[in-house]
């Protein structure tokens, strides 16, 4: 059994809140995992060529092509993304769009699998965490837990954090504040968030070890989707 972790952060692992949380979730599953960072990967969005309709294989040749087998073979997913403009950042969005290749006809390669979604934002990670859950639903993957944390907006380290009137630090602390290291948000210093990541990992591990009926999960997710569509029409 193996879990695939995806960190959609564009920043180096050592300063990425997304990477920290995805890794924490994975480590607490007790199951073998592989963690892939999308940083510097060349992954474009779906180009709607429909080349994947017959065989569920995307024909676009970029870095996602090498990841296809790993995605198919994984028993579950832990996917995290930073909040950019109150939604997913582009590379994670592109990665998730390309999951379209698995959806067609009898394309049940991913159906009924389990996932945890992770979001980190300068204010909140809820938007990307919710968006990832939405993408998972289109492949009938159940998101068993969502983890959201506050990371360091780039304005804390750009060099103008104390004086920039439109920067996040000024928005959070008001004009004329003095920046200290402990003001820079770090998910590792947010006990509730770290605990949520630990709990999410344990839950995913338990669900996987207990075993689950993929067809039943598929039907449950499909039902939830239909209810959501129903209430939004
Ligand atoms: C282009 C850009 C747009 C951003 N937009 C938002 C935003 O709308 N809301 C927010 O809370 N944080 C926003 N942020 C801040 C990031 O979400 C924050 O830096 C987060 O810690 C990134 O995750 P990482 O540390 O794993 O890279 C933005 C950052 C960038 C670079």
What can you tell me about this protein's structure?
This protein is 38% helix and 16% strand. By secondary structure, the chain is α/β, with parallel strands linked by helices. The protein folds into 2 domains: 3-151 and 186-232, 3-Layer(aba) Sandwich (Rossmann fold); 155-185, no CATH class. Strands 1, 2, 3, 4, 5 and 6 form a 6-stranded mixed sheet that branches. Helix 1 (17-27) packs across helix 6 (191-210). The radius of gyration is 18 Å and the shape is globular. Flavin mononucleotide (FMN) binds next to helix 1, strand 3 and strand 5. Residues 9, 11, 16-18, 82-86, 120-124, 151-154 line the site of flavin mononucleotide.
The helix/strand order is: EHEHEEHEHEHHH
CATH level 1 name of the largest domain: Alpha Beta
Query: What structural category arises from helix and sheet content?
Result: alpha/beta
Contiguous low-pLDDT stretches (5 residues minimum) are none
Bound molecules: flavin mononucleotide
Q: In total, how many domains does the architecture comprise?
A: 2
- The count of DSSP E runs of length 2 or more, i.e. the number of strands, is 6
Biggest β-sheet: count, sense, barrel?
Answer: 6 strands, mixed
Give the DSSP E fraction (strand runs of 2 or more residues). Answer: 15-25%
Amino-to-carboxy terminus distance: 40 Å
Number of helices: 7
Averaging pLDDT over every residue, what do you get?
A: 95
Shape: globular
Which CATH-level-2 architecture of the largest domain? 3-Layer(aba) Sandwich
Radius of gyration: 18 Å
**The named CATH superfamily of the largest domain:** Flavodoxin domain
